[in-house]
Amino acid sequence: MKILESVAPLAESHDGFVLDIWGVLHDGEKPYPGVPEALREMRRRGKRIVLLSNAPRRAWTVGAALAEMGLEPELFDRIVTSGEVAWTLLRDRTHPWFARLGRRAFHIGPERDLSVIEELDVPLATRPEEADFVLNTGPDFEHGRQSVEPYQPMLAACAAAKLPMVCTNPDRAVMVSGQRLICAGAFADRYLELGGDVMEIGKPDAMVYETVLATLAMPAGRIVAIGDTPHTDLAGAAAVGIDAIWALTGLAADNLGADPSPALLDREAEREGVRPMAALRSLRW
Prior knowledge:
Elements: E1 3-4, H1 8-13, E2 16-19, H2 35-44, E3 48-53, H3 59-68, E4 78-81, H4 82-92, H5 96-99, E5 105-108, E6 133-136, H6 152-160, E7 165-167, E8 173-176, E9 179-182, H7 184-193, E10 198-200, H8 210-216, E11 223-227, H9 230-239, E12 243-247, H10 250-256, H11 262-272, E13 278-280
Parallel strand pairs: 1-13, 2-3, 2-11, 3-4, 5-6, 6-7, 7-10, 11-12, 12-13
Antiparallel strand pairs: 8-9
């Protein structure tokens, strides 16, 4: 697999960019070196950029966090999050799976993620047996962010109540300043083991790309997605027929090391069932 040292060659071959956020633009606390400069140069060259994240929150909250890191709104055209898509599905209730949901939710996750139900008729239940469904946005600080085990009694109670689960972040893990933390997808896996009914919203589901592709408004052959996770970012790009680049930051760096060989990348891509057109050392110009 070819490893690119810069995003510059991609700016020659593509006009639309779908960028993962966490693990590509930043490490959870600050942008990776060179990212702001690369985005500015891409914008200067007229490239259209949509940020696509499995964040379990609405897009405006992610935009505010990026601005605090120095990644201003003018550096991209739009932010699309799995939380935003989930919010729309819970609002409209036209999707068959969501049409049969009740209104009252039992929330597993931190309070900061509740933007996913803001302004909606979704009251929160304090106990699973009082709820109609589980709203899973990921781990909280009270129970910890490194293992599913502290959440097992909560998940078992929800399964016993036969609550369907809305998982607003299919990621299984994320890197935060060099530390690997679990995400909502890890709870979804355990809930399935308990016999639960789970609906995951986010990459790699083609549904979350609808707004992205409409915003870019160009032929698929001119669009490339850059992400650090094969089973979400790379598989999602393949699902909608656009090129994919494997960013060697974030989870890729944690899984494969700081300087993986092309042969190792080929083996991992084959194991994951993906075919990225190349890898990218980091998002820099």
